[in-house]
């Protein structure tokens, strides 16, 4: 059953090592956690499966889990985000890898299934890709799992639905919902890297452009904040009326997406939903409009509809597909509608993933030690994990938070 | 038992009417709620007591409740925030008022007690001033109360402690925690008006100054945002390590307050706690430092300690007290440490209070209709109230939120 | 010929002294220049006439010139900006004053003429009010003038026209054009104080509002910057196409004022021109639109046209006049169209005027010493004055600029 | 004498064409000028030499000049900024090219000399590379030149020194100093692309980092603005005291570079000078500090000193060289100290270069028609060129600037 790694080219390892080393230099929190917590032996010999974007930051987490004694298997969570050099380096560092860049759908599926078939005890999941496949296709493997943790908003939404159906026989930690994860990764990390990726890939000037942000959740807020920072005029579209008024109070223009379609120069989606930009939007867009997705899947644009409308499709520039419409307008889709920051750039900033993977490492450690006494189903990350990650981060910054006095604590509890 | 109003000067009414009329022009949400909901008769003849800062926005809420048929009694929640002209106008509009600007502590206490003694059925409270006095001093009046709602974070913290002690015999809605309240009022409203008040009262240039924000809750975020907007360099001090890292990611400098004391030009508190700036801070501050409070009470600075340290105290400018220390440094305290936006200016922006009081009006209406079937104790504002306020606000802006399709709703619920 | 001061009420002096003392605490640059330069006796016994907004900052300059031995006469440059308490304090400090708040046009004119009739040797002018009156009405007094300096863009434009006509028989320094003046006073000073004044006087929420800035010179840039900082969406209208594209690159929306009239919530003018908002704009404005002027004169709105269009006019709030149009729309004009930051607030920030008046004090000192050897007509402020003011300012901040090495200086001069 | 092109690989042309086509789509101003002006035949048969960064935007200018009938020869202005694919495409479009990516110094020099040897009539220069070589090494070729235009601040400084020495026998237009050039290219273009390049090449998180900007000229302002926009805390170092106070008023921290060296996380230079960061800075820097140059040459860091101090040097990541110091600290230099936006990314945004090259195209056109009647030496670009570029840009944006009335024009000229 134990299979050999599948990667593109072992010779790429040196570049992969260099990238991982760069991450190691900028990930002091994760390193501290490896030293202080993972080193206690509780992960020794445990089978860990990870399915996250396979680039250098993920790799560094895998390496540290491996160094803590775990048997680690990884596969990519997105066909375009896998970096072959990093995979090659991982194999040299003792991690089993099933991943290549831009595989066929069948290959991609095969990598995930092979990962499952290692019968993991601890699953670090992304979009519930591994857990949902186990439940649907390999229920017999569920019994070996002691617990899982989930990286994304999309995955947590799915797992909540699964939990309500009662199909989760083990505890699943909603790592995404830890404050030290989503407040930084989803908000600042996605926005920072997605806006920079749009600038780099298009070589266009964002200042003065109208950037339409679809969705004003954590991801949308970050997108709006950095688009604004680069000088864009931001328009926000969102179904939740309260969030829409928040966007307005931030100074963004708010409107329905059918109107936004007419005025936008760049459209960025971050909703976690599907077809948030469809035929009725494409019909209204200006010639030259740029479309980029920063949500989870490549469903946020209705690309099927766009292809049907288009009279031609060509690569206009690396990572940019141009669709020409019958009336001559050209729409430019970045990274084929996949995550623009990770399919067309190096993903989230290192320091952000340092926090996220510190949470994940502690989740794996927690599951290894406490899963037996935890109830099955989706549950929040223990507060101590958030607290510990935050305190270590502040230590690395040399900053001391305020300390409440006894008098102050008493005051906060009193009402008389 | 029913007493006459106590105000400073009935002749000031015309100015008060003018201020209330200005509010009415800029409060379309509250007006719409009065028309659509309050007009159904459910408040007719009900005794309503309100203790909120007595200026024109509060007055407009009182007027609308009165027009809906309630018997309304109001008193001020803060000695310096009461505007005598507004009180005079309220009396002419049929509201009973117990309030004067800058009363003695005994007078202030008397106003609150008189308000309680009207045996209110519905209490709109601020800092739990009325409810806590009833519980402590007039328990016999509690039975006439059908329910209350609470305006502030400070009040909700107190009421939670009371609830845990089991002393709340009626339902209390945490109006502060409604999204349409705290996301706007606590965040944008306090920051916007406090920073503007500091600028207006000092006539100083905020750009390039180091503004130290104590506390990074909703209030602190707003203070930081607008201080930054006026060109200040913002330093944040905060006990919660996660919030401190959020402040860092926003681009603010974070440090312990003992170090901040040395570098700050302006200090603004918004913690809800007491003595967050004390002797050890005053010792380190630069000559000319400005201290302003945007929290609930005038406890955030340890003014007793400052007075003890000072060799002299004088009014340096309207609303600014100068304390000279033995080494010649001068510290400038705004508004005697009371809320700088309301004791030294006109308080929150009208449009913000339009949202807050829309929530409060609907809370009063909800209690009038449903209190009997609600459990006693502190509880959240019903979601429909938030939703309704948000939708009416968007209507006034002419904005339509996105509408999810059936396919999208199904997608969000599916995991297969 | 020497006349007594004309002020409103000598009893107001204590408040005036307090305001001047506050300025003195926050004007270290001007103080240093008084100590290091003005104290050399060159101003002793010289007749100096100043016509600038008569509030505490101007007063402090007048006091320092008086302390340096000059015979100082002051009058106000704007009917609404004179503060009577400050005038009373000035008289007690030995300065001759011809100014009262809100005089009749005849009184205002009389004050200026009395100031001229002191036969000043050095004129510190604002809008060329004194110099133009001398040229037009009292040419015989020109011969006693050794030189003048001019505070404003408007005045420099006028004086350039006068210079081209050859009617300036003495040197006039364009103090406004000194870098340490216009880069700070016109840009940051006007914007900072005007936006804060709009917020304070209206009690409205600027975030999310559309603020239309008329003119994108130094004043317009500052207005846009601080409106943006308070969360507004900024629209810029401007005749110079290059400046308009600069505004666009800053992320502001740019459009013609006829379209802007339809979308703006607040209009702020800073053009130095007349009737930049007229009947065709008023016709298009939304109900409730706010109009504020931050330019030099009260000509920027065509108020005569507005009064003609209106069916009623009333004071809606202190400093706010409401004009109701036949279709029911209400337009709100702040400070009767006069400078909103100075007619409805305390004017520019103290630290900004510290720089401006440091320039002015050095201009007066320069004229006292060198006017005889200067050519007549408009001319730039000597570079050393700018340099000295900047270096003293950096000293007060404890900051040392980079020092170029010999190698670097050589490199900048070489081309081989 | 006429030589064949020298490029790396003709087979790369398709990618080059694609990049040029992308530029063409986003350069409406340059296209309009080609249609309206260049098409008049005045460039037909004229020999034009260009030395500018050889990527797609420059290429598009070369193509348009070629299409207007000129004989165009191009070479690169920087060894690392030449893109081989673009060169290949240019050759196919009829432009003579002497350029390869990363040539030896001898090759690079040879390309420039070959360009000169085409005996150009019109020179579009960058850093005065061509003109200075002609003057120094090939004076006999000067007589064929009718005029030149210069792209950069650095070049203008050099040419001014040359002009003062009297060695410029033909007119040279300071294209850099045109408002439509430096206000956009130097300020927004460099900052936007340099900050994005730093983010993309390092994969680090700029928010919360201290970014030290060396120099507060146009380039420094743009760097500071976009670093701030990405959430960094900006520190500015600058020799001019006035500019330093401007930086302070913008809300940036200002300090001497020796102190900045200790607190900076990222250092970006934009001074046009040499050795602005040297041994005394490297000694103070934190482990992991990032150094990027956005000035003209790779002289802004004293790399020789750094190499001497370092115990090792290695490639830490693509475009990042790591220098390890004896005490273990590692400094990371981007793009070998060359222009970070163009040696490690695609250079300025297309829309910005659309403006710059519109100016350059009109300069070439102007020289072709009017050089004979122009005085020799450095001179400003005619105002009409700025005006025309700005008006065409506004046309493409659909924006109409304000139009002054007769009354307004008269008012601005009057002083009575």
Automatic annotation (TrEMBL), chains A, B, C, D:
**Keyword vocabulary terms for this entry:** Hydrolase, NAD, One-carbon metabolism
Keyword Mitochondrion assigned: no
User: Matching InterPro entries, A to Z?
Assistant: Adenosylhomocyst_ase-like_sf (IPR042172), Adenosylhomocysteinase-like (IPR000043), Ado_hCys_hydrolase_NAD-bd (IPR015878), NAD(P)-bd_dom_sf (IPR036291), S-Ado-L-homoCys_hydrolase_CS (IPR020082)
Annotated NAD(+) binding lies at: 152-154, 217-222, 238, 294-296, 341, 348
Which SUPFAM superfamilies does this one have? Formate/glycerate dehydrogenase catalytic domain-like (SSF52283), NAD(P)-binding Rossmann-fold domains (SSF51735)
Catalytic activity from the UniProt record: S-adenosyl-L-homocysteine + H2O = L-homocysteine + adenosine
The kind of enzyme this is, by top-level EC class, is hydrolase
**Domain S-adenosyl-L-homocysteine hydrolase NAD binding: start-end pairs:** 186-347
The GO annotation for biological process reads: one-carbon metabolic process; S-adenosylmethionine cycle
- GO MF annotation, one: adenosylhomocysteinase activity
Entry similarity comment: Belongs to the adenosylhomocysteinase family.
Q: How is this protein named in the record?
A: Adenosylhomocysteinase
């Amino acid at each position: 059953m134990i299979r050999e790694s599948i990667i593109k080219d072992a010779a790429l390892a040196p570049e992969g090592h260099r990238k991982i080393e760069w991450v190691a230099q900028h990930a002091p929190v994760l390193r501290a956690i490896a030293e202080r917590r993972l080193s206690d032996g509780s992960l020794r010999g445990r089978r860990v499966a990870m399915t996250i974007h396979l680039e250098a930051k993920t790799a560094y987490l895998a390496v540290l889990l491996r160094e803590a004694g775990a048997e680690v298997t990884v596969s990519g969570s997105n066909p375009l985000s896998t970096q072959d050099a990093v995979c090659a380096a991982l194999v040299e560092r003792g991690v089993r890898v099933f991943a290549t860049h831009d595989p066929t759908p069948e290959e991609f599926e095969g990598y995930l299934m092979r990962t499952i078939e290692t019968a993991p005890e601890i699953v670090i999941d992304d979009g519930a890709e591994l857990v949902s496949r186990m439940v649907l296709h390999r229920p017999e493997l569920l019994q070996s799992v002691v617990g899982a943790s989930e990286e994304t908003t999309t995955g947590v939404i799915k797992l909540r639905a699964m939990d309500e159906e009662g199909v989760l026989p083990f505890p699943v930690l909603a790592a995404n919902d830890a404050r030290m994860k989503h407040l930084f990764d989803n908000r600042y990390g996605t926005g920072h890297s997605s806006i920079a990726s749009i600038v780099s890939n298009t070589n266009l000037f964002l200042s003065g452009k109208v950037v339409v942000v679809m969705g004003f959740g954590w991801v949308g807020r970050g997108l709006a904040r950095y688009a604004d920072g680069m000088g864009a005029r931001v328009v926000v579209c969102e179904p939740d009326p309260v969030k829409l008024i928040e966007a307005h109070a931030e100074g963004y223009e708010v409107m329905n997406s059918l109107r936004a379609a007419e005025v936008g120069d760049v459209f960025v989606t971050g909703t976690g939903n599907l077809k948030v930009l469809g035929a009725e939007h494409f019909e209204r867009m200006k010639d030259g409009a740029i479309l980029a997705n920063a949500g989870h899947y490549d469903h946020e644009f209705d690309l099927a509809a766009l292809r049907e409308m288009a009279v031609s499709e060509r690569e206009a520039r690396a990572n940019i597909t141009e669709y020409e419409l019958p009336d001559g307008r050209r729409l430019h889709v970045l990274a084929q509608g996949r995550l623009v920051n990770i399919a067309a750039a190096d993903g989230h900033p290192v320091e952000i993933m340092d926090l996220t993977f510190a949470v994940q490492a502690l989740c794996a450690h927690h599951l290894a030690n406490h899963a037996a006494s935890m109830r099955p189903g989706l549950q929040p990350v223990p507060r101590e994990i958030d607290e510990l990650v935050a305190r270590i981060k502040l230590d690395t910054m040399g900053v001391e938070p305020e300390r409440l006095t006894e008098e102050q604590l008493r005051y906060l509890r009193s009402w008389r």
